[in-house]
Amino acid sequence: MSSRKIVTIIAVVVAAGLLSLTRPARAEMSADQVLADLGVSAADKQRVLSGEFVTGEVTPVSDRDLSISIIFLIKASPAELAEQVVGGDFVRDDPQVMASGEFKGAGSLADLAGLTIDAAMAKTLASAKAGTALNLSTNEIAAFKALQDTAPAAVGKQLQQTLLGRFQAYQASGLAGIAPYDRGGANSDVAADLRKASDATAGLKKYLPTFQKALLDYPRGTAPGMQQLSRWLKYDIDGTITFVLAHMLVASDGEARAVVQRQYYASTGYNAEQAVAGFLPAEQGTVVVYANHTFTDQVSGFGGSAKRGIGRKMMASKLREMFDRVRNEAAR
């Protein structure tokens, strides 16, 4: 799946990892002790300590959900990793990112000045229609169809307006502000899937309730010391141009960090993604607890179970490649 290649560290943290965030591993603890505190089996613990990536499944919250978890050890501090994620180092280093930008305050078209499209994308957007090829609301489809000028500059400006509108609606109303995708029948309710993913984080709800509530109640909810960043990104994923709106939040408890990224809009390939990474300090560096929920209509319906199985294997492979690059960079 396309979002597996996105090089920002994101995930839906497992309950065991969140328990450790409430009882943060101190720097003098060994990775072995941290892994034991996470409830990792003896066999998997040895694999992590040997430098392997240990993958597992996260319970899907819908039939559109591809999910996976990974745990590994990296030679960098939790603070350094969180800073790199928020600072965008992984975005800048990702060869698939063609362009990106940060929304400032309430957002404006100036924030999207770096987003441009070519003639092929202009034609695709100008001929948008309900279905699964593009993720657009009924009103967004109508706006593209109403364009008199279908040159890349004009269509690109409408795309900027579309992304800005979605950002501002999300910033004003959170999940309730996310417009569903028009599938030409039963629409795809992105907000409902993201709400389920937020509500399913049992460990977060139990041990970091303020942070979990902030996820559900954004923009009304917040947590002490919570940092956040909103971006737009233009990806070239296997030759497919994909535009993404991402909201990143960071929370801390002692030396440990939790990073959440919610991709509340993706123009094609998948519907949305929500994730959290837990960075837990240890003598040897940081134990990273990673899991990921990505929603796509391409694994629902008949044969969905088999597709999800294939999708998870593809995801695990891409994530291992991604984290290997991250670990090698951190070791330099």
Structure characterization notes:
This protein has one domain. Helices cover 39% and strands 23% of the residues. The protein has twelve helices and eight strands. An eight-stranded antiparallel sheet has the order 1-2-8-7-6-5-4-3, sandwiched between helices. It is elongated.
SSE inventory with pairings:
Blueprint: H1 15-22, H2 31-38, H3 42-49, E1 54-56, E2 65-74, H4 78-87, H5 89-93, E3 97-102, H6 119-126, H7 138-145, H8 152-173, H9 190-199, H10 202-207, H11 209-217, E4 227-237, E5 240-253, E6 256-266, E7 272-282, E8 285-295, H12 304-330
Antiparallel strand pairs: 1-2, 2-8, 3-4, 4-5, 5-6, 6-7, 7-8
Helix pairs in contact: 2-3, 6-8
Features of this protein?
8 strands; 332 residues; alpha+beta
Radius of gyration: 20 Å
- Principal-axes geometry comes out as elongated
Average the pLDDT over all residues and give the rounded result.
80
Q: Count all strands and give the number.
A: 8
**SSE string, helix = H, strand = E?**
HHHEEHHEHHHHHHEEEEEH
- Please describe the biggest sheet, giving its number of strands, its sense, and whether it closes into a barrel: 8 strands, antiparallel
Low-pLDDT residue spans: 1-27
Structural class: alpha+beta
- Share of residues in strands: 15-25%
Name the strands of the widest sheet in spatial order.
Answer: 1-2-8-7-6-5-4-3
The helix fraction, in percent, is 25-40%
How far is it from the N-terminal to the C-terminal residue, by CA? 30 Å
What's the number of domains?
Answer: 1
Count up the helices: 12
